[in-house]
Amino acid sequence: MRPSTMSAYNRLPHAPDCDCSVCWSGREMAKPAPSRSTPCAQCRPASAVPIRTLQMGRVGGIWKPLLSEWKVTPRSFCVKHEPNARPPKYWSVVLDTGRPTPYVPIHEPFELVG
Fold this sequence. Notes:
By secondary structure, the chain is an alpha+beta fold. The protein has helices at residues 3-10, 21-30, and strands at residues 47-59, 62-73. The chain has a domain at 3-73. The mean pLDDT is 80.
């Protein structure tokens, strides 16, 4: 194809039921993320709020708090986003052959009896 017809081809609209890679990836990207880390309305992030200023001082000619008491609220999760009590298992045993056999070096030559 010539360049002018190729650019004209690229601008053609796709059919609503088109199954090409461009349309498929566009549909997949439009789906909501099924990630467990996506927060919902019941999940609450951690926060820290100053409740009382203990010491003030002049910084650059402006009075600013130098020492404060803070109220810290830990984050909380809903039942769906609650993290596991144990970390994920990244490695599993493929074949367990029992206890390992210790290596004992033999310093004396020997002959096989057959």
